[in-house]
What we know:
alpha/beta; 7-stranded mixed β-sheet; Aspartate Aminotransferase, domain 1; 13 helices; 3-stranded antiparallel β-sheet; binds pyridoxal-5'-phosphate; 15% strand; Aspartate Aminotransferase, domain 2
Amino acid sequence: MMNGRIDLRSDTVTMPTEEMRKAMYEAAVGDDVYGDDPTVNELEKKAAEMFNKEAALFVPSGTMSNQLALFVHVKRAEEVILPDRCHIVEHEAGAASVISGAQLRCIQVNKGEMPLDVVERSIRKNPEDIHSPRTALITYENADSDGMVRSIEYMKNVKALAEKYNLPVHIDGARIFNAVEVLGVDVKDLAPYYDTISVCLSKGLCAPIGTVLIGSKKFIDEARRKRKILGGGMRQAGILAAPGLIALTKMSKRLKEDHENAKYLCERMKEIKGIDVFENLTQINMVFFKLNGFKLNSDELVSYLEEKNIIINGEDNGIMRFVTHYYVTKEDIDTLVDIMKAI
Ligand SMILES: Cc1ncc(COP(=O)(O)O)c(C=O)c1O
């Protein structure tokens, strides 16, 4: 429950915790464009340490972080190999065509994964051929927007393939802490399998704003310059980095609870007539389902629940999604399921 409502639309809706608000108030700040903000510097140092890379950069959003990664890794008219359903393709408003000028080579996913033989076939083998674009980057999400986690073996294999062709790998790790919770490893352990990663602090981790882009010092130096080009150089950003530090070091460790709640929700939804729950898709904090003979259609359900102070998204291609997070308790889940059963 958050502000008297149960909001299941996404984990992006999470508001800063009391501890975060206090940290924001008390944060030491300076001009970050001059490199003078001690709290931003601390956040960037901590992020690099945790992910076992040389450097990190605090940016306003996951979208800017992904787009900066492309802007640094890829030259205009070069090609990025990536899943057809990923955030960069579907939800970043075509930014790559404007910012980096990259061409997106979208690979049809199979159970969320780009098949590696297709990736290999898609890599341009002759950079001197004047007809074809040059491949410059491979990128994918972990966990992905459908809540599925890529295995360590898959991550290893993508990196090995990329190395064979001397290509960097960028991970959109908006929900990497959800992924490592499922994989049962520390984020440090994944460092060998990518060159750069984008980690959102403002999703299930409850920070109000912000993402860290992490990689080598050389990469981050260039990303810092290009962040300025995008107008993303912020001044006394320590008030945002302070909750970011809590997100990174503390909130990242409690995601098991959200995953368990998602599994509980999934289990309880089986009690509701006219709902097909996709149990095998519940790996992290997302529950996917379909209305199949339910009394209300998707729009009617959205309105009905809104009247009961439960906020959900409508269907997308016939599929609906509930997302658990810090502000969704087991009791909230019982409330939701009881209301849906009564319908
Ligand atoms: C997988 C993934 N990548 C990137 C983003 C972008 O983050 P932002 O909304 O901060 O731009 C999102 C947002 O939900 C996401 O789900």
